[in-house]
């Protein structure tokens, strides 16, 4: 299915509602506006297979643009609204975007990114930006009928790499595919969530994230009404469930934590009985937190493990999770293989790297070495996201480690290398390591462990200076929330940093040694 089908069948039914402003966009309006923008994209010279980038906070215009690109056969890059100008510039350049669309609330960064790039076109939404064409006015000059050469486009999302530079995940885009062709996620959601045109789906997260973007568009394909929160707040979230009689939600564990921290009398104020299905992923969920959520909402909470790369997926429903606590489920897309460093499968119950077989491998843009590294050294049709885990006798996967000490804070993937690369340039820093440490609310928090230059004494003032230095050069989410100091960091003679030795101190692990 596709929004245009629902625009014909139920034109005045809400496609989505902005929870904060109350603005409603019907299926007819979504269809017409996305058609107009598709015409504007063609007029701007965007051909099938080309790329556009969208840099905005949650906005009623977001899906009008994404569906326009989808029906024009384009790649659309959803850029994190938290990034700095230099980070946005990198993605614009690396993705090969011909056109940049920015939200008015991000105008300062957008203007800086424009000054550093030379794209064909720059458009704004939700207000004017100097040097940008206002899309709402611009689209009005184009017809609301479909473009003549409609074909399916897709997203191109960026996921940070172990080198610190983000890598675009660019799936193959076959020409002349119908815009309403079935997709894997839509089929999975229809089967596992029971969603239909009467469903109300609440999206509490930033739309530039892979899961919120893809889940919202999949539920729109099914004819459901979306309720889009501009920003997550736990009590407001509960009030939206009650007010809109929400039936379906996709969340991350840090949201569970915030909800459970509300006073019990506040939580009990709101009626959540309309909920039929909730799913979470993106970060480890502590077993006690999930137990409390199931006790509160009932056994309607699913969990999955997958990546933006789309090379496999596991899934578990509450009844199975309650008898296999801590699992992220069994494979529903691809076959699971747990392998040792040589690429050989290990026995049931033993840890190893998690691979999926029988699915398309990741396709990282401009990164053949990363594509190659994702493949099993012996079984080249198996691919991995780099996670470590084990499978029990029932086929349930348990993750026990994560890709090269990636930090997952509040459902956001943060790779420490980029932060380390900034810190090491500070004149008072001799060496540094950035790790994730336990955090009750966000799962993990970013911490830097710094070896000062000779003659520089550790102090709270130095820590504050280094954190300010990071904030001046990186988006806030990548910056350390705290800094500790050590006289020496453990490195091999070859220069390899034994980050596990540093990290294990904060996670209560003992017995680590240098091999």
Automatic annotation (TrEMBL):
PROSITE patterns: AMP_BINDING (PS00455)
GO biological process terms, semicolon-separated: fatty acid metabolic process
Ranges annotated as spanning the membrane: none
InterPro entries: AMP-bd_C, AMP-bd_C_sf, AMP-binding_CS, AMP-dep_synth/lig_dom, ANL_N_sf
AMP-binding enzyme C-terminal domain boundaries: 418-496
Annotated AMP-dependent synthetase/ligase domain residues: 5-358
Statement: the UniProt record of this protein carries the keyword Signal: no
GO MF annotation list: medium-chain fatty acid-CoA ligase activity
Keywords tagged on the record: Ligase
Pfam families: AMP-binding, AMP-binding_C
The family this protein is said to belong to: Belongs to the ATP-dependent AMP-binding enzyme family.
Listed name of the protein: AMP-binding protein
Native organism: Hyphomonas johnsonii MHS-2
